[in-house]
């Protein structure tokens, strides 16, 4: 469960940036709980909530780097998204290999707006800012072919996935550069953009 990078915590522009992944929420699908994987997962949703609320403030940003929910579509995951939205801080969500609910950014944004999920943001071919940091990214994937068979079996074209995600990362970084140039044109500090 994320930690504070001292340099970030000492900045006056934001409180902190945290990162975590693999929540595998199942509030919408109670039978799909991670608790079947052993005692270390026992009551994990309550533990995530308690730790989050004791650590993260409303001024903080939390990067959620994939595997957010077991749901198969946005509507099915509504309770999982409501849970995340109820927690403090701005959330920036990236796709994981188990996020079958993932839709286009536009559809996700419309869904979040429809249900007033105001703290959830999809990072997909774009950039968000937190203080003077630009947050860019994409879904990670295995670069080592020997590990690629752990997800999806042999029917998956892994090189196609790697190439697509490399293209999306480039788009996200280019968007970050655009924001940096816009800040410079406004006369904002030249050290505005630190990519995470």
Any key phrases for this structure?
34% helix; globular; alpha/beta; 196 residues; three-stranded mixed beta sheet; four-stranded parallel beta sheet
| Rg for CA atoms | 18 Å
Query: What is the string of SSEs from the N terminus onward?
Result: HEHEHEHEEEHHE
The largest sheet is: 4 strands, parallel
* Cα-to-Cα separation, first versus last residue: 17 Å
**Apparent shape:** globular
Question: Low-confidence stretches at least 5 residues in length (pLDDT < 50)?
Answer: 1-13
Brief digest:
This protein is α/β, with parallel strands linked by helices and 196 residues long. The chain is 34% helix and 14% strand.
Q: Mind explaining what this structure looks like?
A:
The structure is a single chain. This protein is of the alpha/beta class and 196 residues long. Helix content is 34%, strand content 14%. The protein has six helices and seven strands; from the N terminus they run αβαβαβαβββααβ. A four-stranded parallel sheet has the order 1-2-3-4. A three-stranded mixed sheet has the order 5-6-7. Strand 3, helix 4 and strand 4 (120-122) form a beta-alpha-beta unit. Residues 1-13 have low confidence and may be disordered.
Secondary-structure blueprint of this entry?
Elements: H1 6-9, E1 17-20, H2 44-55, E2 61-65, H3 78-86, E3 90-94, H4 105-114, E4 120-122, E5 127-130, E6 133-136, H5 145-148, H6 158-185, E7 194-195
Parallel strand pairs: 1-2, 2-3, 3-4, 6-7
Antiparallel strand pairs: 5-6
